[in-house]
Amino acid sequence: MPPAIPLATYRLQLTADFDFDKAAAVVPYLKALGITHLYTSPVMKARKGSTHGYDTVDHGQFNPELGGEAGFGRLSDALKANDIGLIIDFVPNHVGVHFADNPWWLDVLEWGQASPHAISFDIDWDLLPYRARGGVLLPILGASYGEALERGDIELRYDAAEGSFSAWYFEHRLPVAPERYGEMLRMIVKEADAAETEAGQRLLSLAARYTGLRRPNRKEAPAFKAELKEIAGAADIIERGLAAYRAGKDRPAQTLALHHLLERQHYKLGHWRLASSDINYRRFFDVNGLAGLRVEDASTFAATHQLVKQLVAGGRLQGIRLDHIDGLRDPAQYCQRLRRLVRDAQGNTKPFYTVIEKILCEHERLQHFAGVQGTTGYEWMNVITQVLVDAKGLEPLDETWRQISNRSPRLAPYVKDAKRRVLETLLTSEFTVLTRLLARIANGHYSTRDFSADSLRQALELYVLHFPVYRTYLTNGGPTAPDRKLIDDTIARARAEWFAADEGIFDFLRDALTMELLKPGRPPHSAPRVRRFALKVQQFTGPMMAKSLEDTAFYQFHRLLALNEVGGDPASAGLSISAFHETMRTRAKEWPLGMTATATHDTKRGEDARARIASLSEIPGEWTSTVARWKVLNAPHLALRGTFRAPSATFEYMLYQTLLGAWPLQGPLDAGFVERIQAYALKAAREGKEETSWLNPHEAYESGVNSFIAKILDPVQSGEFLDSLQTMARRVALLGALNAMSQLTLKATLPGVPDFYQGTEFWDLSLVDPDNRRPVDFAARHSALGSLDDPDWTDLMKSWPDGLIKLAWTRRLLKLRNELADVFAQGDYQPLAVRGTHADHVIAFARRHGRAAAIVVVGRHFAPFTQAGREWPAPERFDATVDITGYSAPGLAGNDLPLAQAFRDFPAFVVEARAANAIRPSRPRVRT
Q1: Where would I find the beta strands (DSSP E) of 368-438?
Q2: Are 766 and 774 in contact (CB under 8 A)?
Q3: For the whole model, what pTM was predicted?
Q4: Is 524 exposed, middle or buried (0-12, 13-18, 19+ CB in 10 A)?
Q5: Could you tell me if 746 and 384 are in contact, meaning their C-beta atoms sit under 8 angstroms apart?
Q6: Contacts of 65 (CB under 8 A, 6+ apart)
Q7: Is the pLDDT of residue 892 over 70?
C-alpha cells in the first residue's frame, strides 16, 4: 500500500496520444525512480481533441479519448501492482461549453431557466440589452451576426433520431426551444407543399395539439419528440421544408424567418469580440468556451463529484488536486463538502491527500481550508529561485533594465497599467455586471441613491486596480480579520487617488465589500444583492490579477526572466539564507505536507532553463556588455519603419535571455529549435499586449519578430552573433546546471512533498505551454535509469550535458526520502551554521525526527568557483565548514564538515545521520 501522504509525486499530462495505457506502461519506471504517487492531469470526459483536459464536459465519466473506464481500470491495476497511489487533477470551477458535447449546457440552451441545469451555471439572464426575454449570449461567431446569417453559416437541421431541431454554426449545436416546434412545423409543411399528404396532416395535427405559451413544456416535450420521429415520411417533409429557414443574401424572406426564430430562443448569437463587453455568464478567465460552475449549489456539487466519490470508495484514488480554487464562490464551503464526501466514501481512518492550485502573492499567507494539506507549490518554487539568485547582481540588472526600457525597475506600475488594459478589453463584461449590481444596491435606499452609477464604477475600478492579491475569502458570515484589513487597506489606497468629492462613496463601497451594510441598525439594503456582490467580487479579482500579472506584466517586465514565474515577484531583491531558513522553519510547522514544485504544466519556462537564466545575476556586468554587443550585431535584422521597430528593444532583451535558457546542450541547431523560439515569441508578444495582442494582432510587428529570430539564428547571416551566443550559452549552461542540482536537492529535502513534472529527470529547457507539453521519451529514461544502479559521479560530472547526472541524483534523493520517510514527512527543519570565506555560498540544514536525521548541504552562486562558468568547480575551491555539532554520520568525523569534503562529487550533499539527543518534533497536523 502506498503511504496516505505522498513522499514524492510525478505529474503526467494525459492526452489522446498519451492515454491511460501508455501511462500504465510508465508506472514501473516511476517505481524504480522512487515515486510514491502518480499525479495526472484531469481524467474526466473533456472536449474531443483536448490537449490538457481542463475543458471537462462531463464530470460523470472517464475521458473516452484516454481509454474510458476500461483504460482507467488498467492504469489503476498497474498502480496497485507497484504500490503507487493516484492523485488526479480535478476541475470544480468550470466546464467546456459551446460545440455539441456538454449535455448540461445544451439542455440550458434548449430550456433556458426552466432547465434543471440552469442553476449550475452562473448566468445573469436579464442582462442582454434590447431583448424582451432573458437569455445567454453565445459569442461564437467568427463574423458579425448579420454576415454569418446572410452567408448561410447558421443552418437549421432536424435530428430524426431524436425528433429535435437545432441551429448549427459549423461545429456548434444550438438546440431550438420546443415551444417553437409548432410554428416551425406549420411553416415546414407549407414550404414542402405537403399539407394534403398523410404525413403532412399528422405533422399539422401534432403542431396544433399544444396551444398556449411555452408548450410543449418540459414534461410534454419528450412525448412530442417521440411522436414526431415516429411519423412515417416526416423526415423527408422536414428536410424539404427547412428551406423556409435557409438563409442567404439572395433569400431575404428565409433569412428573416431564421433570424426571427433565433431571436425567440434562450440564447443570443454574437461575434466572439462581444464577449469582452456583453457576455453574461461567468467564464474561466476570458475563455468563452469555459463556463463557470456554481458548485456552491448542493445538487451541482453532488452531480459533479459522483465519480470522485466512487473512486475514493473503491480505493482507486488517494488524492486530489483542486484546479483554480479561487474561482469558486466559497472555497471554504467547497472544501468542507469535499471532506465530508471523502469521509463518507472511505471513512475517517486515514488522510486523503488534497492540495489546491492557489497562487500566493509575496508575503501572503495561505488560508486554512478543511482537509487541505497545502498548495501545488508555486510559492516554494519561487522561494528556491530567490535564494539561488545572486542578490548582489540584481541591482546592476535593475540599471540595465532601466536603460533598455526607459522605465523604473518597479513592477507595480506595470501591473496597474495591465489591470487597466484588462478592464478595458478582456473582462469588461464581468466588471459591468459588478458595477450594475453595486448601483442597484445603492439605489435600494434613499441614503445612498445619489451615488451615481458612473461614480460607483470609478470607485470600484480604483479598488480593483489597487487590490494587491488574487482574492479575499469572505463567506455569507462576513470577512475574517485579515480579509477586513486587506479590504480596508485597499480602500485607503483607492481613496488616495480619488479626486472627485468623496461624500461617503468609499465608505459605502467598503461596507458593501465586507457586507457591513447588512448589520443590524444600518439602513436596509437587499441582503441577497449585497451578499451576491461581495462574493462575486472575490470571483472577479482572481481572474483580474491572473490576466494582469501572469499573462500581461510578466511578458512586459524582463529584468531577469528567472523571477517571472507563476506566483513570483519579477522585481524581487532575492532572499538571504537566513530569511530562507526562517521561511522553511515556518513551513515545517504550518504546511509541511503541501507540494514543492519546480516545474508544472503552467510554468513560464522549464526548471533548468530558469536555473540558467538565474545565473545571469552572478555575471551582470559581463551579461550587460554582451547584450550591448549582440544588439549591434543584430541591428541589421530589425524591421524598422519610422518609429516602428520589430522587435521592440525590451522584447529583444527578453529574446536573448530566452535563447540562453533554452539553448541546446548537445547537437547542432536545427529548424525545430528556431520554430520553437518563434512560437514562444508570438505567444509572449501577444500576452504582453504592447505592440500586438490576441484581440488585435499586429501582423507587421509579428512578422518582423518572426523574421528577426530566423535571421539571427541563421549561421549564414549571423555567424558572429551565433559564435558569441554559443560561447555565452556554454558558460551559462554550466552555471545553470549547478544551480539546477541545488534546486533539485532543495526540492527533495525541504519540508513538503516534491513534485516532479514529466520528463524533468533529464535537463528541462522547455518554454511555456504548449512547448512544455511535448512528448516525453520514457523508454530512454527507463533505460538510462537501469544503467545507473551504481553511479560513478566523476564520470557523470564529465558528461553532465547528457543529463544522466540529474537522473542519478534524482533517484539518489528519492531513495533517501523513502528510507527516511518520517524524517522528511514529519521531521523538523534545523539550519546549520556555516563558517568561512564562502559561507554565503552554502545553504545547510538538517531534517530531524527523533534521533533519525538527514544533513543537507547545497551550494549557490557558482561563478567564482567556475571561472564564471568555464569549468566544473573543484571541491577544494570552497573555503567554508558546516557546523554539524550534535550529529554523526558514516564518513563524517568531528563537529565540522569541510565543504571540500561535502562537495567531493558535486556541489550538493545529502547524508543520513543520527542526532546525539532525541528531540521529538511536534507532529504535523494531517488534515483529513
Answers
A1: 374-375
A2: yes
A3: 0.95
A4: exposed
A5: yes
A6: 15, 16, 19, 46, 48, 49, 50
A7: yes
